[in-house]
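[step 3/7] fold_predict: job queued, chain A
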Amino acid sequence: MDYLQTKGRIFDIQRYSIHDGKGIRTICFLKGCVLRCKWCCNPESQEYGIQEMTMGGKTRVVGRDVTVAQVMETVEKDRPYYARSGGGLTLSGGESLCQPEFARDLLRGAKAAGINTAMESMGCARWEVIEQVLPWLDHYLMDIKHMDRGKHERFTGKPNDLMLENAEKIAACGMTRLSIRVPVIPTFNDTPEEIRAIARFADTLPGVEDIYLLPYHRLGQDKYQGLGRTYPLPELLPPEPEHMERLKKAVESCTELRCQIGG
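[step 4/7] structure written:
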């Protein structure tokens, strides 16, 4: 099983998570991202290189090189929780597809062990890259951030053409469950019109039944200072619960999708 020796670079493994997929999950955070979203809560994920980050007066190294086998040692520890809750392994980042062989073999290792797999991803990669992970993936949690190409590029650094095209291809191939997730960011995409546009697109994707609205939060803001960077959106405040409910109703007014706030 040579794939267990495939090496990759991660910056965290989080156990006992109830987000990013069904049940209790272990989330493996991979280093590297092709986008530069202004609101990113994991800025330490953006660079592939190993970094130092100072938090609370303490400096720590962010990033370490591991094999699939080493990650699976941690994942296996919580197998009883997966069995009871329907949970498993979730890949996150960054963008997991920036390390395609490592992501593929992590998912393959989990499936070989009988563990459910999920991946949180923007789908910002060549289709040939995405194709190689799909056979080992139970649930693709795909971010769709905006339907307007120019606004998407201004806030993330890249246009949205490739992501939307890949969403259509993933849905059409029918190899994995696909769910759409929308980070709701004030000044970027938090109007009912913008959310309805994303929901209508999601509703055209074969097999897609649910959409998640993820409210903006400021939990990663201190990390920018710890990395010697300036947070790009310092005046932004999280949306009020009442506003999130209005956006949820906007989705429900124009689609049959199950809409959930958070998750």
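[step 5/7] annotate
The longest strand covers residues 7-17.
The longest helix spans residues 241-254.
exit 0
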